[in-house]
Amino acid sequence: MDNKQEKLEKIRHSASHILAQAVLTLYPDTKLGIGPAIDDGFYYDFEFSSPIEEEDLKKIEKEMKKIIKKNLPFNQIFMPREEAKKYLKAIDQTYKLELLEDIPDEELSFYTTGDNEFIDLCRGPHIENTKEIGAVKLLKTAGAYWRGDEKNKMLTRIYGTAFETKEELKDHLQKLEMAEKRNHRVLGKQLKLFALIPEIGQGLPVWLPRGYKIRRILEDYMIKLEEDHGYTHILTPHINKDILFETSGHLNFYKDSMYAPIKVEDETYYLKPMNCPAAMMVYKLEPKSYRDLPLKMGELGTVYRYEKSGELQGLQRVRGFTQNDAHIFCTEEQLKDQINEILDLLNQFYKDVGFDKYRFVLALSDKENKAEKYAGDPERWKIAEDTLRQVLKERGENFEEIPGDAAFYGPKIDILAENVFGKEDAISTVQLDFNLPQKFDIKYIDSNGEEKEPFIIHRALIGSFERFFAFLIEQHGGDFPLWFAPEQVMIIPISENQNNYADKVYEILKDADIRVEVDKRNKSMQARIRDAEKMKIPYIAIVGDKEIETDTVSVRSRLNKELGLMKTQEFIDYLKEEVRTKGNK
Amino acid sequence: MDNKQEKLEKIRHSASHILAQAVLTLYPDTKLGIGPAIDDGFYYDFEFSSPIEEEDLKKIEKEMKKIIKKNLPFNQIFMPREEAKKYLKAIDQTYKLELLEDIPDEELSFYTTGDNEFIDLCRGPHIENTKEIGAVKLLKTAGAYWRGDEKNKMLTRIYGTAFETKEELKDHLQKLEMAEKRNHRVLGKQLKLFALIPEIGQGLPVWLPRGYKIRRILEDYMIKLEEDHGYTHILTPHINKDILFETSGHLNFYKDSMYAPIKVEDETYYLKPMNCPAAMMVYKLEPKSYRDLPLKMGELGTVYRYEKSGELQGLQRVRGFTQNDAHIFCTEEQLKDQINEILDLLNQFYKDVGFDKYRFVLALSDKENKAEKYAGDPERWKIAEDTLRQVLKERGENFEEIPGDAAFYGPKIDILAENVFGKEDAISTVQLDFNLPQKFDIKYIDSNGEEKEPFIIHRALIGSFERFFAFLIEQHGGDFPLWFAPEQVMIIPISENQNNYADKVYEILKDADIRVEVDKRNKSMQARIRDAEKMKIPYIAIVGDKEIETDTVSVRSRLNKELGLMKTQEFIDYLKEEVRTKGNK
Questions:
Q1: Contact between A239 and B199 using a beta-carbon 8 Å cutoff
Q2: For burial by CB atoms within 10 Å, which of A2, A296, A524, B201 has the most?
Q3: Architecture (CATH level 2) of domain A194-236+275-476
Q4: Contact B168, B12 (CB under 8 A)
């Protein structure tokens, strides 16, 4: 951490103390939870005696600014355990008393603000004086269980941020506002792409028609792309019998991420957290020879994995999601080509969807512990790791290498992307698997008639359609490339006199497989244009009398570029070309 | 039942006695279960002291024929209960003793064969003499739990059939053989369309690449067809929170068909047995006005319903399946048009997939009990029932009307198809629902600003992709129409000298979106042709030197029709036309 960052953390941690002080000044019977600095700011958890409103945040912020202006010093003091206990009991801070139990020290560290105006159980460090806080802003409240445990009371968490200067705060708030506009949850609602409906379930998004349209287009694209590279696709059920996960080992090492078992007659089923075990069974349906390899078995597989409710986040972190999954069974000699082909597909895909903010991470084994920690033959590990590294290098990719970050069953390449708020998540994976072939006794007969174990590459170009869609929405700010925009053209007749002509153009475009709508609502043309723009429809085709006379449409793109009058066929050709090139001219 | 059928039943029931007699003659320590006549034959359940083999069936059949030849009479006798008990104990027939407990009569009816050669607890009726059995044949064995209860012992069920004459038996066996060739389970395996893998789960089919290809084509076709008629599509998760099924009432009236609950933190989830509750929540996301109606909300929704393991049958009866589901929200005035449109889509779909063996059933309420038994307003029931009947009549459809067969929540039109063995099952449904709008408070604002309840039509053109696929396989005997055949063309070079040319033709066809493969395996041309025919690939394009010289392919269709030499483009046009017209020229 550099000095600037260290200073900022101290400022924010100190601001959280001032927040608590301000709250106690205004609402003296409030109980304090914890109040750390976090990325981009700080928070403090409170148990208020009555709920607080948006209005209250302003009052509290005002009180904080008053405190800051007093130029109060921060000082560390120590109290013996018994004294500390007595003190916290006296001021009736029960949560702090609980925290104290977890600290083994005999002398407890507290920090005072000013002349004991506020005292908090705290290890520090803090700034020296409140005047170092150049700018502070409270942002929002949220519910948070005490100690993150749903069995405990729900406290009120107040989020805020603080900087050395007002300019920095202003910059930050502007960035936040920009990010908020691109936030997939905001755009998802505005553009009617998906919905999270509490009665249906937490972390279980519903794809609304416009979102599902995009998903289906991307699915079809992906299947076609993979078929062109020799993949075939299967579909396996969402629940699998326990024996599969016992065999694979998931019930040993992955149980915490799996849903509770479902009893059916005398059998036990699980919602599948991964598609792999069923894919192995399909491989084994018929004996395989070297002539069958490389065998590329794809699946648009929906999996269900348990995540704590507190960690769910829009489409980015959900409990059920669909992968464009595939298992590639190949020989050692084919390994390099296969990894290259996967990265080719990946690049093609990212380019076609206009996705360019990502980075590669190569997760390797921890050399020293190799033998005991990892499944499979060390020699095969070496081949796999060397091949992954070599391929990335030869392709000239920038990548980070992280020894010790491999799964116990194999090394992998992860592709990470960052959301608008700076949070990073994996979107694609290329994972070697040395566990499954052994567990499921996966073999092929080589050209000498001998049984051999194939290499298995488990790869997902779209690790989760849900999560990838979140990133896609945010990177495009909802302005999707024409080829997968849910509607491509909105026809707007200037008045009802042009309705018939609008319908005619609609039919022609539709027959040419353009996704087109007509807006004949009884609203002003300007209002209808605004609505189409709000839904980020790539092209608006306006038709008035002039257009009827000349058998044209008046086209404007969503970038507010007037393309002027175009013959219908000319417009179709224009659109088709943009779809064909996927906007990559 | 006509006389012929009555006679046949007596013959078969008597044959089952003879089967039991033959078994006891050969394996005296066998315990007898029950032995009824069934459709097309008879069976008898046995507990053998050691397992029997295919070979044993022949021995038993031979013994039966010996008994029949003796011209033994059947006679009914009666025994008082205590005597009957003593007798069955003496011959150690424990299952018969159990059956006796369920018969309330004081005098128990038995039937003797010959001079007490065989005596069985039985109500009859039987034929008079074994000589009336003109022909008998044992067919197969299967496991069957005593009294159909999985908790009981598994007995060996021997199936057979019997007729008055040898000719009738011969005819029947021929028909069975033909049906077996069309049996979707046999073809499913032969054509690699799907697999049932015990380790993955019972009643949970896996779609293999060739089957999934067909499914995906049918899905895309269906979405397009529906979109052209104003449908939009959503996708909801496979597990839903309990509150949805409490609200809908499923947990009351449908619980037996639902899987066990899944606990997640402090919430309870269920695998959804129906897509309706989630669809209702999507409707409610935004207030609706009459301008939004008719609203046609489709979903390719996968549902999970519990079926007893004994009732599972290939793809026809499964535990998890995908529906092309839709909910149509409309006004009373729109109801008739909507039902007509649904039947239009249905006819179009059936015609396009070449499906023509089905019939309509109109399931209506039971007039007398209407008030207490059925959900919703009786007046709306009348409107719905009248409209359904009127539409079917006006369209000139043949349909059966079944009062009392409606669900408690609404009347419906079911479309039934028969499988190769004569078993009938519903494939499509058009169901009115008067329960959901009330349970979920589904409303729209009419043109006068008043809140009203829409009509909800719950329809599935494909009630289950799995089951429909079973029927489709059987009706076509695996010879799928070109437009959804998994591969459309197999190119076979006569020798490796034509491999390059074959690859060239392959690329041209592929670029024209023809689903094409090349078979360059080191096998004789005849063998490769046979393989392509075995996989029922619609067209085989053979290329030799002559074809290279003339820039053609030599085409034969799977109907063994030689189409002769065709220029590649000519061949493409020919295929495209067949795809465009879906074979309906």
A1: no
A2: B201
A3: 2-Layer Sandwich (3.30)
A4: no
